[in-house]
């Protein structure tokens, strides 16, 4: 049995942890089967408890852009650890990383560190509400901004995977202030602005969504959205938790040539440690406590180990300017080759890619929004997932997710992946 020890560990875990996992999508509930318990990760590979290895296309859901356990990050973190784990006081390192980021990303004059992407997005909308003195926000069906109450309304990622994008426990009072628009559908946005004039604090979106699978914005969509926000004095919040530092330092703002009012980050910014951040123009950010009236805080925010891992990762990305070209090229090759193989087999599919994010959908439909993503052939995806897993290729266990390509994926891993796709039978 391939996953003997994983099965035993999963069985045991369920006695003590709800569903045996600390984040739902890890449970393999939608694809079926037993989640694989990992015990080690190095470079392009994950190693499980049964002694098998996998080429990793999740990369901890995005953070491990360099691959796992990068020696330079490991050394920097080890040295930092010797100085203490957490001080609960300001440190020079926090200014260093803030300055480093601000000098390199667009439209961020000040930045605050938090502990997760959820916290970053939750804090950004509180700030937007406080700053504009308005209550309502617009989010898009299928976009995921973490599990804070305001966002669990038709959310993507795990919330979509489990077919329950509206969670019990989110009060009607909270839900009424989250208005829902459809991605790539300007009319749906205009209607909401028309019906709620002067009431919308912010529009938040993943500029290149990755949580309903990878989706690309239509030509002109984002420009028009920016215009509508400006006309209505509504803040445009780009959730770059996935795209930040993955598409290069400019993120989606630069790739799409759009200026956001607030930007949220996570994943890569912590180099694999628990970090999120949000930033924006000085006058908005200075509305935060202790300068301003909007409260936001965190016991471990700006934790020195996490800051050191993040700063070291970002420094490597900044210095190795060819890195983004390399991972984008790897992703393009995977996209094109996988598509050719599936076409030759007569398996209907469509693949969306942006930079080093890519999703393989099955079925005839082109995927432009959440409705499309829901209509993709998820049964075939589940079969594909298990086939690839058996072949030693680790994909996200849901058809609503994105693959994240790391710089550790080399030709040998690409070949291994394509050989596995070759063997797939629907
Ligand atoms: N925003 C986006 C775009 C995300 O992809 C995620 C997590 N996948 C989040 C926010 C929430 O981040 P976290 O899981 O760190 O709370």
From TrEMBL:
Its EC number is 5.4.3.8. GO terms for molecular function: glutamate-1-semialdehyde 2,1-aminomutase activity. It is found in: Cytoplasm. Keywords: Cytoplasm, Isomerase, Porphyrin biosynthesis, Pyridoxal phosphate. The modification N6-(pyridoxal phosphate)lysine is found at residue 267. Its cofactor is pyridoxal 5'-phosphate. Pathway: Porphyrin-containing compound metabolism; protoporphyrin-IX biosynthesis; 5-aminolevulinate from L-glutamyl-tRNA(Glu): step 2/2. This is Glutamate-1-semialdehyde 2,1-aminomutase. It comes from Moheibacter stercoris.
């Amino acid at each position: 049995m391939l996953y003997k020890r994983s099965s035993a560990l999963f069985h045991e875990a369920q006695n003590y942890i709800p569903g045996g996992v600390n984040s739902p999508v890890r449970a393999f509930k939608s694809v079926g089967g037993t989640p694989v318990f990992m015990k080690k990760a190095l470079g392009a590979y994950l190693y499980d408890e049964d002694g098998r290895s996998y080429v990793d296309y999740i990369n901890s859901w995005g953070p491990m852009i360099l691959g796992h356990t990068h020696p330079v990050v490991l050394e920097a973190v080890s040295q930092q650890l010797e100085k203490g784990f957490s001080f609960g006081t300001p440190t020079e390192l926090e200014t260093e990383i803030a300055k480093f980021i601000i000098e390199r990303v667009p439209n961020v004059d000040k930045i605050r560190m938090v502990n997760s992407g959820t916290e970053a997005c939750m804090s950004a909308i509180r700030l937007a509400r406080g700053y504009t003195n308005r209550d309502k926000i617009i989010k898009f069906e299928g976009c995921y901004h973490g599990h804070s109450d305001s966002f669990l309304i038709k959310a993507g990622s795990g919330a979509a995977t489990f077919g329950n994008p509206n969670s019990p426990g989110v009060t009607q009072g909270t839900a009424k202030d989250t208005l829902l628009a459809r991605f790539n559908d300007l009319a749906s946005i205009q209607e909401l602005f028309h019906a709620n004039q002067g009431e919308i604090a912010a529009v938040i979106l993943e500029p290149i969504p990755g949580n309903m699978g990878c989706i690309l914005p239509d030509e002109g969509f984002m420009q028009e959205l920016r215009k509508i926000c400006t006309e209505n004095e509504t803040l445009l919040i780009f959730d770059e938790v996935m795209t930040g530092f993955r598409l290069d330092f400019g993120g989606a703002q630069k790739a799409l040539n759009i200026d956001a009012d607030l930007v949220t980050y996570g994943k890569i910014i912590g180099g694999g440690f628990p970090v999120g951040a949000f930033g924006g123009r000085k006058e908005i950010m200075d509305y935060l406590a202790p300068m301003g009236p909007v409260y936001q805080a965190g016991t471990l925010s700006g934790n020195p180990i996490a800051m050191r891992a993040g700063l070291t990762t970002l420094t490597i990305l900044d210095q190795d300017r060819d890195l983004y070209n390399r991972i984008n090229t790897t992703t393009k090759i995977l996209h094109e080759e996988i598509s050719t193989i599936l076409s030759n087999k007569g398996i209907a599919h469509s693949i969306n890619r942006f930079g080093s994010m890519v999703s393989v959908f099955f079925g005839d439909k082109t995927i432009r929004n959440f409705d499309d993503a829901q209509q993709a052939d998820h049964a075939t995806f589940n079969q594909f997932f298990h086939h690839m897993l058996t072949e030693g290729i680790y994909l996200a266990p849901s058809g609503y997710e994105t693959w994240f390509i790391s710089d550790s994926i080399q030709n040998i891993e690409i070949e291994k992946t394509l050989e596995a796709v070759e063997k797939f039978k629907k």
